[in-house]
Structure formats: structure tokens, C-alpha cells
Amino acid sequence: MGGSAPRRDHHLPVETTSFVDRRGELAAGRELLARTRLVTLTGPGGVGKTRLAARIAAGVRRTFPDGVRFVHLSGLDDPALVPLAAADALDLHDHSAQPPLRALVEQLRDRRLLLLVDNCEHLLPACAELAAALLHGTTGVRILATSRHRLGLTEEHLLEVRPLPVPDPDGDLSSPEGCPALALFADRAAAVVPGFRLTAANRAAVARLCRRLDGLPLAIELAAVRMRVLDVDQLLDRLDDRYRLLTGGSPAALPRHQTLRAAVDWSHELCTEREQLVWARLSVLAGSFDLETAEVVCAEGEAEEGSADRGGPPPSHEPARRLESAQEVASGEERAGRGVCFAGGPGEGAGAECVGGEGAAGVGAEGVGAVGAAAWGGSAGRVGGAGGEGPAAVCAEGAGTAAWRAGVWGDRAGAMTPGVGGAGRDGVGARWSGPTGGAGRTSWVAGGRGEESLLGDQVGWPAAESPAGSPGGAPGGGERVEPLEDGTGKGGGGEKPRGATTPRMHPYDVLDAITGLVDKSVLARESGPTGTRYRLLDTLRHYGLDRLRRLPGEEPAARRRQRDRMLRRATAYERAWFGPGQREIVARLRADQDNLRAALDFSLTTPGEGRTGLRLAGTLWFYWHACGAPREGRHWLDRALAANPEPTRERARGLWIAGLLAAATHNLTAGLALAQDAHTLARDLDDEAEAAHAEYVIGVITLFMDDLPTALKHFEASVVRGPVPGQHLSLYGLDQVELACTLGFLGEADRAVEVCERARRMCELHGEEWVHSYVLRMLALAHTVRGDWRRAEHHARHALRLKLAVHDVIGIALTLDLLARAAAETGAHERAAVLLGAADHTWAGIDRDRWGSAALKSTRRDSETRAREALGQPGFRRAYERGLGLDLAQTVDYAVHDRRHPHRPAHPRKPNAGRPGSPHATTGIRLTRRETEVAELVAQGLANQQIADRLVIARRTAEGHVERILGKLGFSNRSQIAAWVAAQR
User: Fold this and answer.
1) Whose CB has fewer CB within 10 Å in the chain, the N or C terminal residue?
2) How far apart, in whole angstroms, are the C-alpha atoms of residue 150 and residue 270?
3) E strands in 505-562
4) β-bridge mates for residue 70, sequence order
5) 736: which DSSP letter?
6) DSSP assignments along 579-614, one per residue
7) In which band, very low, low, confident or very high, does the pLDDT at 244 lie, cut at 50, 70 and 90?
8) Which of 121-125, 248-252, 258-262, 917-921 shows the lowest per-residue confidence on average (mean pLDDT)?
9) What is the pLDDT of residues 281-332, one digit of tens each?
10) In sequence order, which residues have a C-beta less than 8 Å from that of residue 923 and are 6 or more positions away?
11) At what angle do helices 974-984 and 749-766 cross, to 10 degrees?
12) Are 699 and 711 a contacting pair, CB within 8 Å?
């Protein structure tokens, strides 16, 4: 219904049905936008405001050099998140300490763009504040809003969207082409009755029907669906009967504002009882949703068991499936007191994961112990993170310690270097269980079991309290329902009273009901990168929510099921985060963004649910940190911590994550205080895992504050100590990255490279991309200190490819600066100029001034000077503007794949020439065709299992190829193969 499927890329909605002509409104809208900066489309629900606004925006798109962006507000209920939703739509990544709205205005000050803000009516003050700030703080931003009510600003110009005009049924209908209401009915009826068209025999009845529906597009579409079983005359008769129930006998007396309610009521009554119940329960889902989520929310518990695992990591990833399967086994085996072991380590099969029981040997398939494959598991953090690598992100890659300090500083500040992850002993993530019996090797214990009922008994958290809720009312924090324009919010009459009990829903009942609701155009089906999803049009969702609140206890129960589903999903994703499924996890979490917000809001505004809300906010640490949402994460954690002052493990965890996110937005003092509070509380609770997590944040902030001796001592001790029981294993890998950073600052680049190589092997083993991208960038910086620009460029290109995969925009910007410097140093001046333009374009969405960092600006200035001198002003400008015109994907494609070096220096530096193990020492060695394919895949960072999958061979065969390549080339590790492959190119 509605014909436009919202997309998370924030460009204009895709039209899924034909658009009925509104030439007058389209022309008026374009004219208003040409002479004013704020236009609001107003009108009743179901009149077509969103479709019309999208059409207007599409028509003027070319006049805005910086594009048109769509801000979805229908699933948002917290006014504080409106500026963040706008920034997200604009793909802006501010990490400053400024208030979000002020930061947004700063970033848009020089932009020329159109912002389409949809569904403002339930957030009017926040939307008015956003519009006012943009109007007063920028000159090139224009706003097109849709709302049932005006924003109330003096600069606002209104365009009233009226129902479609309907001709007189008794008049001349010989030219129905000029009647958009009839055309809409005919188009939608033809979709369900192939071959239907307007004829002389049915035009009058269709016109009469459309007039009875007041020309409201949504009401006409709902009626047209009934053509599957009724003809036009039957539709008209039944509709008139429906209206007489509302008006005491005279259908002509029905006010226009009740027409839509009456039409929706009629569609509701024609649904089966189970379809009605599913419609009502689905209304608690704020955004789009998948089938499994619908089953959980609607099936009263049974679907939770049947589909909980389906809410976990993407099904294509074997490590995630193994963890899910282990949970199911553990849930039964632990209660029986038996130890359950299962193979660990994605791809490589190393390590063992043991759940429950004493003496369960944690022996991996290849006998790897604590620092082997199993030890490397867990969710990963990052250097700098997707949210950014910091205001002082310095990349002045010169020689010696000063160059390292400049280059690595970009990875030190801002988004807090590697993100700390995991629930530690509290089981939200995978955890280290320490030595066990058997062979005396270590074991790996899966953190959560994917189901809320099992989380509590495994980790000691109580199950979420379940207050009964007030009969028929909304729980605390339940969203406000917009009545369907009938003035009462209770419906238009003709309602069937429901008994005290509702039919019990099974998962197969939900599927049948969803099928029926899609057929009746109540639910819209849409396809996307995460598969098939469904959504309720906003008007129909509010109708369903109103119906749900009339059923005693139903709304709080449905919201609790929805919240628990989001918690299980977040837990499973966190557990699988350090693995090959990160791209899919990011896509799925973004698709579920509105539902995550709804789950958090329900928990934090409903008595007895606050602790679960804090747990959910803490479990999503990797989303807040890795996916560039530190501001929103801090918003939810601040609320959750305020609602949960009790000394609990959840609070200890929430405190250090809040500290991490505070430091990510450059508030180091607040971040340090929060981390110290977390450490104190964790020690009081004897929780070694959360204490270790807090220590990590304290150590990173210490590094940010330039206390290098203390930071070096901290990270060396952490690496030597290894993971503590219950600690999220990503921390161990991140400690290595921080150690490499500190060593670089102290001038020990060789040791830094050595440490990074260990961390790199960890990432390759698990097929992980996010942390891997930061390890590679750190390696690139280390090689710039050595003066090895070719190897630095190779690592930076690989890092850039991975950063795009997880949409780490700040990491991309910093790496582009590094690549531009490498191109200038190696004489590829045209390439350097293009990369400088692309880097400046990318930085414009973060901070044009590169956080005011003298070193970052110095690095850029040096690269520009070299390129400008070599190309001349005209040549430099052409190449630079070419880079400015690239979007993010095009930028990465150019930076990764363009290998032309048109202006090479007469004497390029070759620091590795002739040295054993270097690329130049292996010329003349020939690999077989298969070995060449394997070497290329090794250079792309693929682990052995991934190579085997790609080439459709056994893993052992892939391992044999890698070993033969190492032997032929005289190398000792995979990174040397990657460097050799780069040299051959």
C-alpha cells in the first residue's frame, strides 16, 4: 500500500505502484521550492503526501548539486533522535562534542541540497527546531516536509494535499482520462483482476464508489482490492451499508474526516479473526520486519523457540551456525550436568568450545591452545572504528618516530581506537573459560544461547520482569496513537466486541495471516539486501495499534515479545561479530533500526523492564561503535544508566561502553571517569571480565592523553596476560593493536609490524573484516616509517576495500589521505591529485578542517604541493575535480584498482631490494595456475577455508597450495605472499 518502499540508503523511496497524475500539485510544489526554503505538504492521513513529496523532489533533483535525501520519521518516537536521523540520512559522521543539531548545521553550512522530512506530525516541536536551525544556519539547504499539521514557522509555506477530484457520477463520463480517482481505482483493480478496465457500463458505479470514498487514495486502494470477490456494484452496496451503521441511516451525512476510518474499518472486518489479531500485534513493529520477527511477536511464545535461531547471524556463515547449534545442545546438556564440546574457530577448525561439565577437554581440531584459533574468537573492536578515528587523526607519514606519531594519531583519537566488545562473563558474547580438565588445554564457551529464557540461567541475569500492564492501556513509553481522523480514536462503528480471550497463534497461523494481509494490501512486501521484509503503512499501523490497545494486556505483551526478539537478535549478532558475516549483520541491524529503538524505549519507560533495556543497549556496543552511531549509543546508554542505578553487571558494562562512546566524541575526561566508575563497580562485584573491559578503555584514553610509558606498560601486560575468564576475546586482539600503536609512537616500528602481523593472522583466521581493516592501516603506517611506500600502499588499498564493506567512512577518509601521500611519494602525481579530491569530498561529510589537526593538514598540504608542482595548475585542477566528483563507492574503486603510475621518479626507493623474502628477490619464480589463483586470494586477505570455498576445493587442499607457495618463494608468512602479489602487478 502507498506504493513507496522506504529504503535505508535515504535516497528517494522506490515507487512500487504507478503514480496517479497530480499535475497541479506537482507544479505548485516545484514553484514553491523555487522561491522558498521550507515547504510543508499538509493533509489527512491516506491522501498521498509522501508519494507527492517524493515526486516533487525527484522533479527538482538536478537543481541541487549535493542531492536530495529522505529522512524517515514514521518509526521514530524520541524527539532527541530527530537531528541524528537527519545526519544519518545525509551520511554525515560528526564525532565532535557539539550538540547534534549544531554539528549538523556546521556540516551543512556550504551544501546545496533538498531534505525531504516525512511524517512530522508526531514530532512537531523537534521537526520545527530542525527546520529553523537549518534555515537560519545555512543558505543552500531547502526542506520539503510532510505532516498532518503545519510546523508553525514564519518561513513555512503550506501546500495542502487534497483528495483526488471525482466527477459527478450522473454527469458526462465519456472522458475518464481526466479523472485521477477513477484512474487510480482502475489501475489497482486491474492488479487483482487482470483485464479490468473502465467501460461505459461501469464508469458511473466506479465514480459513485470513489465519491463515497471522498477521493482518498488509500481508501480507494483498499476498496479496489475487494474486486477479487465483488464487482463494483456489490462494493458500492456494501460500502453504503457500512456507512449507514456510522451515521444512523444517511450515508451522505458522513464527514470526510471519518471516510478513511470507515474504509479501514471495513477492510478490517473483512479480515479473518487471526488476520485481525496479527494486524494488531504487528503494529508494535515501528519499521519494516522479516517473517521470523512477525512470528515471534504474534505467536505467543511458540515462535520464540522456533525462530530464535533464525534471528541470529546470517545463515550462510558456518561459525555463527555452529554457535547457535551449540546453544541448543548446551541448553539440554548443561541441565544434565554433562560437558559439551564442539569445534571452534571459523574456517580453521582450531580450538574447542566447551559448555558445562567438568573435565571437558578444550582441544581444537588442530590442537591450538589459548593463543590459537579458539583464543582469537569474540566480537572485535577497532582502531578508530567506523565512527571515526579521531580529531587529532594525524597521518604525516614521514620518516622516523615523528612520522609514526603523525600517522597513527589518526587511529588514536575520535572513535576510540579499537572498540571494546563483548559481554564477558555475563554471556552476551563468547567468553574464555580458562583451563579445563582433559588434556589441560583451554576451552571456549559460547556466551548466549540465543533465547532470553536461557540467558538468565546461564549467566546469572534474571529473566526480564513481565508486568501485566493495565488492561487495554498502553504501557509506559508506548507510542502515541494517531486517531484515524474521526475525532475519537475509537473507530467508526460497526465493531465486533472481542471476548476476554484471543485465539492462540502458532507460527503457521502467522504465516497464513501475513499471506492474507498482503493479499488484502494491508501489508506491503518489499525486497532488499537482507531478504524479504514487510511493513504496515503508517496509517494502518496506527489503526492496528488502536485496536491492540482495546485488548486487555495485549500491547505490553506484544511489545515485550518484540523487545525480547531484538535482544536475542542483538546477542546473536554480537556473538558472531568477529567473523565473516559482518556485512550482513550491519545491513540487518540497519534494517531493524526503528525496531531496536522501539525495544529500547519500551524497556526504559516501562516499570520493571529497565535492566533489560540496559542489557540491550550494552549488547549493541559494536553497532554504536563500529557502525558509526556513537551519539545515538550514548543517548540510549545515558538513559539506561540513569534508569538503573543499582550496582549490577549490566551497569558496569554500560558504564565502560558509555566511556568508550564519550571518548569517541572527544570527551576524554567524561570517558575516563565513566570507565573508572565501571572498573570500581566491576571489582566490587568480583567480575574480572567487566573489570578488564573497563581497564581497556582506561588504557586507550591514557594513550590518547599521551602518557606513553603508562600505556605501554598497560598493553604489554594485557598481551602477556592474555584473556581473563569471561572476557570478550576481541579485547585480546585489540590490546595487540594498541600495543603496536604505542610502540610506533616510541619509534619501535619493527616491533609494531610484528605485533600487527599477529593480529592480522587472527583476523584472517576468522574471515573478519572490520578489525582487519585497522590492522592493515596500522601496517601501512608502519611501512611509511620505514620508507617502504609500495608496501604501505598495498596494505592501505586492502584496508580501504574492507572499510567500504563495513561503511567505515572516517577510516576511508584517513586511508585516502595516506594513499594520496603514497602516490605523491612514488611519483604518481595525477593519481595523488585525484585521491586528494576524493579525500576532501569524503572529509566534507566528517569535518572539512580534518578536526583541526596540524599533522593531518600538513600531510595533505605536502601531497598537494608535490602533485601541483609536477602537473601544473591546470593539470592538477582537472585531476582534483575528477576526484571531487566521485561518490564513496567510486572513490574506493578508483583507489583500490587504479594502478597507473604515470610519473615515476628517476630513482624510486626500494628498501627491500635484493633482500631474501622480499618481492624483488623472487623474480623469475613461476607458480602454477592454481597456485597463482590461491596467491591472489591470499593477497585479498582470505583465510584457507574461504579460499577453499571460493575455488570449490577441500580446505586441506587449499592449505597445501599455501604451503607450496611459501616454500617456492622462500617466505614464512602470508603477508609476504600478499606483498609479492602486489609487486607482480
Assistant:
1) C
2) 35
3) 523-528, 531-536
4) 116
5) H
6) STTHHHHHHHHHHTHHHHHHHHHHHHHSTT-HHHHH
7) low
8) 917-921
9) 999 999 899 999 999 999 975 444 433 333 444 433 333 333 333 333 333 3
10) none
11) 100
12) yes
Euclidean distance between CA atoms 18 and 55, whole angstroms: 12
Q: How confident is residue 114, by pLDDT bands cut at 50, 70 and 90?
A: very high
Give the number of other Cβ atoms within 10 Å of residue 905's Cβ.
12
Query: Are the C-beta atoms of residues 124 and 150 closer than 8 Å to each other?
Result: no
Give the amino acid at 384: G
Taking the C-alpha atoms of residue 4 and residue 51, their distance in angstroms, rounded to an integer, is 7
Contact predicate 498/259, CB 8 Å: no
Tell how strand 38-42 and strand 442-445 pair up: unpaired
List of residues 6+ apart from 870 with CB closer than 8 A: 827, 829, 903
Beta bridge partners of 599: none
Buried b (16+ CB within 10 A) or exposed e, 337-346: eebbbbbbbb
The CA distance from 415 to 90, in Å, is 19
- 252 CB contacts (<8 Å, ≥6 apart)? none
Fill in the amino acid letter for 827: G
**Dihedral angle sign, alpha carbons of residues 938, 737, 687, 604:** negative
User: For residues 398-427, b (16+ Cβ closer than 10 Å) or e, as one string?
Assistant: beeeebbbbbbbbbbbbbbbbbbbbbbbbb
Closest CA to 11 of 111, 113, 107, 110: 113
Task: Round to whole Å and give the CA distance between 965 and 307.
Answer: 45
Pairing mode of beta strands 442-445, 68-72: unpaired
Helix axes 854-884, 809-825, angle to 10 degrees: 90
Q: What is the pLDDT of residues 332-368, one digit of tens each?
A: 333 333 333 323 333 333 333 333 333 333 333 333 3
Q: What are 873's three cell numbers?
A: 595548475
Are 95 and 108 in contact, with CB atoms under 8 Å apart? Answer: no
- Grid look-up 554539528 returns 103
Three-state DSSP state, 130 = helix
Bridge-partner residues for 5, per DSSP?
14
Mean pLDDT to the nearest integer, 430-437: 36
Q: Are strands 523-528 and 442-445 parallel, antiparallel or unpaired?
A: unpaired
Alpha-carbon distance of 752 to 795, in angstroms, equals 15
Please answer whether residues 397 and 403 qualify as being in contact, where contact means their C-beta atoms are separated by less than 8 angstroms. yes
Backbone region of residue 628 per phi and psi (left: phi > 0; alpha: psi in -120 to 50; beta: other values): left
- Residue 466 CB coordination number (10 Å): 12
> Residue 190 corresponds to which cell in the numbers above?
486491474
Which triple of cell numbers denotes residue 571?
Answer: 546477542
CA 950 from chain center: how many Å? 27
Strands 38-42 and 113-118: unpaired
- The CA–CA distances, whole Å, from 178 to 21, 183, 191, 311 equal 9, 8, 21, 49
Distance from the Cα of residue 723 to its chain's centroid: 29
Residues in the chain: 985
**Cα–Cα dist 449/455, whole Å:** 6
Residues 213/219, Cβ–Cβ less than 8 Å: yes
pLDDT 10s digits, 860-879: 999 999 999 999 999 999 99
Q: Of 743, 779, 745, nearest to 406 (Cα)?
A: 745
Judge whether residue 468 has pLDDT over 60: no
Name which residue leads in pLDDT, 240 or 944: 944
d(CA 650, CA 659): 14
Q: Give the model's pLDDT for residue 163.
A: 87
Q: What angle do CA 249, 250, 254 make, to 5 degrees?
A: 115
* Amino acid present at 902: P
Cα–Cα distance, 791 to 678 (Å, whole number): 41
Helix (H, G, I), strand (E, B) or coil at 213: coil
User: Cell digits for 954?
Assistant: 577441500
Question: Mean pLDDT of all residues in the chain?
Answer: 75
Give the three-state DSSP class for 711.
Answer: helix
